[in-house]
Amino acid sequence: MEIIGAGKPAGAGGPGAAKGMFVTDGSDRTFMTDVMEPSRTMPVFVDFWAPWCGPCRTLGPIIEKVVNDANGAVRLVKIDIDKNPSIAGQLGVKSIPAVIAFKDGRPVDGFMGALPESQVKAFVARLGGSGQGAEPSFEELLAAAEEAGDAGDFGGAAELYAAVLASDPAHTEALAGLARCYLKAGDLERARQVAEMIPEAGRKSPAASALFATIDLASHVAEPDELLELTTRVANTPGDLDARFALANLLASQDRHEDAVEQLLAILERNLQWNDGAAKEQLLKVFEVTGPKSDVTKDGRRRLSSLMFR
Fold first, then answer.
1. Catalytic annotation, residues
2. Check: CATH 1.25.40.10 for 138-218?
3. Residue spans per domain, the chain
4. Does the fold of domain 226-308 match that of domain 23-115?
5. Residues 218, 188: contact at Cβ < 8 Å?
6. pTM attached to this predicted model
7. pLDDT, tens only, 20-45
């Protein structure tokens, strides 16, 4: 068995010549010593690939990087199925790239296809792949989840949040993150159910507060032509503050936060205390959703301050 960096690169001439000491070339003949025996002490991932496989060339460098970044928590064994068809056949591998994870001498999970890095990270982390050979910390899982969500990989992010919740079912940030994944997937009801699981003591945290504000803004279900009707009504009767408020709510529910802020500020320009402060309260919810560093929030807060102290 040759260690990458000590001998030839894994899959030499094939996809993703790996770097580091945690990726090895394997074969049918050495499968027991390369995979089965080491899997009794740590997760071992087997990447079944072939030189002619385009997606393998995409996945190879990704999974090698993720495994090497785990710094000894897991191992990766790469098997060229053209040269070693036996084990792949026994495991029922019909399409490549295929990655199968082994623990305690048996296959426990796997995936097929060239997944993005965030999903590969989620897969490896869920099976125990963090740094220094230890279980991933909550901070590492949450950071990886946020990275996956920022990349638009809400499925991978949800898996990472779920990994935290498996150990701490009341973890506020993980619950808020998982609820946000459901929101991004368009499942408002599931998002609301997960949000309601956040303990009362954690609901004032920035993550939870922004989540509940987002759910509140997203709760407005527009009737057909409602947006056009409200827009026309506001244009024809600028002083109709009820119409402006309804329009702002509808715009916010569609993530048109900048437009919603314009309507709410237009109300406050006319009457700062309109409807017992409802417009200001809704404006602050939009700021919570967009975040303190967003241009929408920074510009909106500046304009709100100028109204309050004019």
1. 53, 56
2. yes
3. 23-115, 138-218, 226-308
4. no
5. yes
6. 0.57
7. 578 999 999 999 999 999 999 999 99
